[in-house]
Amino acid sequence: MTAIGIHDIAIATGHHVLELDDLAERLGVDPAKYHVGIGQDAFSVPAPDEDIVTMGAAAAKEIIDRHGVEGIRTVLFATESGVDQSKAAGVFVHGLLGLPQSVRVVELKQACYGGTAAVQLALGIVARAPHERVLVIAADVARYDVDTAAEPTQGAGAAAVLVTADPDLIEIEPAAGVFTADVDDFWRPNDRSTALVDGRLSVTAYVDAFVGAWDDLVAQGGPGYEDIVRWVHHQPFTKMAIKAHRKLAQHVGQPFDDAELALGFTYNKQTGNTYTASIWIALAALLDLDDELDGQRIAMFSYGSGSVGELLTGIVRPGYRAHRREGRVRSLLEARVPLTVDAYRELHAAGAATSEDTERPRVTTAPYRFAGVRGGARRYEPTTQD
Ligand code: HMG
């Protein structure tokens, strides 16, 4: 049977960064609570002319620049911070990238899980038509109210994932563990631009979904715990992955050392929560930084509040190191422009979506920008007009 899986991953993030040391100082919190207690160092903040579309398009552009458009007949855009209730964000990306018209585009939503649902749909499309390639884009801006416990767990970023037959990076295995439970742990009603969250409940709901998805994976004939060499997780904050993993290790009666997850934390500690993109950013870090993965099985756990969890496994393709983009994500992270707490809070206050006509200041240096709203419709454009 032809291997189907992930051929390439590209990452984008916001133009700005807020260091959690600065937030800790402002709030009179011990910085160790952020660095150790929740396992985060900073979070990305979008410029006024950035949003999920511009970040998603930047990540997708990298994929198209590397692989061309041939065979791409489907673009799946997953987000929980959508910019329109009707039009799929992917249609804006389709226009910005000049993709062919013979492409279907749709948006998917189930909190942070949507990107994994998109990858599952993509795997199905490629299984039926192995000559096709599916472009999955996962992009989000995580926004909570300021002065809440969730404030340090905000973030912004996007991942573009190319799903193909005979992939360069990972063959995804057919068995998957899934888990759904109707829980009010985190949600964002239509009249709000920030999420509502019951933080403690969300942590237990995540753990329940992880253990439940594991049990389902076993029931589906998936691999044994000892056959999995590395794990990556959806990481709302990196300590969450450790908490959940400790529970799973107890559940299956296996030893677990927190350090086993550390490489997958590298980028997420800097971007903050990127909702749908989080797990793919964790995966990109693992593939970029771990040299020992040729032919090894890894597991990927996706969680979306509300709640849906899914546990996928895959075999890393021998030779994956020749295809990784070492240094690319680090340079993106290092290029971010730091904000003071006051400047970040000003951007936060102005960040709510609007259908009022506006012009956005030119700030971002990413390939595409949100120009503003004209005639009630959002307008996007390349950042440099040549
Ligand atoms: P909090 O107020 O920071 O909680 O809120 P805390 O006071 O319990 O402190 C957190 C940890 O810091 C604790 O460790 C403290 O002991 C430790 P733990 O007991 O958890 O191991 N700590 C310190 N450590 C070192 N030095 C110190 C120190 N002080 C304290 N000086 C909470 C935490 C998660 C509730 C909050 O950040 C929040 O509400 N976040 C948003 C919700 C969230 O991210 N939930 C995660 C699961 S849900 C999910 O993943 C879905 C999501 O991504 C959205 C989606 O799917 O759409 C959110």
Ligand names: 3-hydroxy-3-methylglutaryl-coenzyme A
Mean pLDDT, to the nearest integer, reads 97
Helix tally equals 12
The CATH architecture name reads 3-Layer(aba) Sandwich
- Name the beta content range: 25-35%
* Extended strand count: 17
CATH homologous superfamily annotation: Thiolase/Chalcone synthase
Tell me the count of domains: 1
CATH class: Alpha Beta
CATH topology: Peroxisomal Thiolase, Chain A, domain 1
Q: What string, H for helix and E for strand, traces the elements in order?
A: EEHHEHEHEHEEEEEHEHHHHEEHEHEEE
| Largest sheet, strands/sense/barrel | 9 strands, mixed
Q: Percentage of helical residues? A: 25-40%
Shape: globular
The side-by-side strand order for the widest beta sheet comes to 5-4-6-7-1-8-13-12-11
Low confidence ranges:
none
Roughly how many Å apart are the termini? 46 Å
What would you call the structural class?
alpha+beta
Radius of gyration: 19 Å
Describe the protein in words.
The protein is α+β, with helices and mostly antiparallel strands and 386 residues long. It has one domain: Peroxisomal Thiolase, Chain A, domain 1, CATH 3.40.47. Helices cover 33% and strands 27% of the residues. The chain has helices at residues 20-27, 31-38, 52-67, 89-97, 114-128, 199-219, 238-252, 262-265, 268-271, 278-289, 328-334, 341-349; strands at 4-13, 16-19, 42-45, 72-78, 104-108, 133-142, 155-165, 170-180, 186-187, 196-197, 230-233, 297-304, 308-316, 337-338, 358-359, 368-374, 377-382. It has a nine-stranded mixed β-sheet with strand order 5-4-6-7-1-8-13-12-11, sandwiched between helices. Strand 16 and strand 17 (377-382) form a beta hairpin. The termini are far apart. 3-hydroxy-3-methylglutaryl-coenzyme A binds at residues 30, 32-33, 36-38, 80, 111-112, 149-150, 153, 185-186, 197, 199-200, 202-203, 206, 234, 236-237, 240, 273, 275, 303-305. This is 3-hydroxy-3-methylglutaryl-CoA synthase. One of its GO terms (molecular function) is hydroxymethylglutaryl-CoA synthase activity. Belongs to the thiolase-like superfamily. HMG-CoA synthase family. Residues 4-165 form the Hydroxymethylglutaryl-coenzyme A synthase N-terminal domain. Residues 246-322 form the Hydroxymethylglutaryl-coenzyme A synthase C-terminal domain.
